[in-house]
Amino acid sequence: METTAKYRPNIEVAADGEDLAHRAADLFVWTAREAIEARGRFYAALSGGRTPRRSFEVLASSPAARVLPWEKIDIFWVDERYVPPDSPESNYRLAAEALLKKVPIPPDNVHRIPTEHEDIGAAARAYEETIRDVLALKGNEMPQFDLIVLGMGADGHTGSLLPNSYAPLDTDDLACAVYTGGEMLNRITLTHPVMQAARHLAVLVSGADKAQTLKEVFTEEPDEVRFPIHLLWPVLDKILWLVDRAAAQGI
Q1: What is the rounded CA–CA span in Å between residue 194 and residue 209?
Q2: Is residue 191 within 8 Å of 175, Cβ to Cβ?
Q3: N or C, which end of the chain is more exposed by having fewer CB within 10 Å?
Q4: Given the DSSP bridges, would you call strands 201-205 and 147-151 parallel, antiparallel or unpaired?
Q5: For the chain, give me the number of helices (H) and strands (E)?
Q6: Model confidence over 82-134: pLDDT tens digits?
């Protein structure tokens, strides 16, 4: 795609949200096959939200996905609101209902963010330990997910790397607590060094309400304070932006 962006991201423009969902599902299948063939295992971290939901539904009904060796697939989450797993606000619940209950993935391969801890900091540490154990990390080794699927908020955040929070500054942890204050729910998120280390990154952006932000993200100098998604600019070359036509109208 020819864009007005100062920085040259790898952008695929989908006709609409449905086309975007099919492209995202195809990407999951392709990266899963690639990882399993190369290394015998596929590690993916998913996000919540309206756009991923439809991609989960498409994936669940895909013949190509149904024949994947799900026993070799491990699913994690990029971020989670600090709510019970059966809450309508839960990213885990969204993925479970739209995808995971419809494919033959072993329960032990599903690694949700544990929101049942009384202390959110303890929950973040427990999630980090799960990542370390499942990916068999040694010392301070950084996990390398095969695929991390992200979104972008209208304020330029990704995951739960929210503006005016500590999360975008955390380079020491794999996962950290996000204290939001006000009416927003507290969250746990993967930190940006983990996101940067992934073999493949996909950012799904849909809707006209994201168009102006997306234009500014691509045309202005990186500003991680204003737009936390700019924390990914050091690895811009390995990000695939899946953007529907409404969100892409400014680029």
Answers
A1: 28
A2: yes
A3: N
A4: parallel
A5: 7, 9
A6: 999 999 999 999 999 999 999 999 999 999 999 999 999 999 999 999 999 99
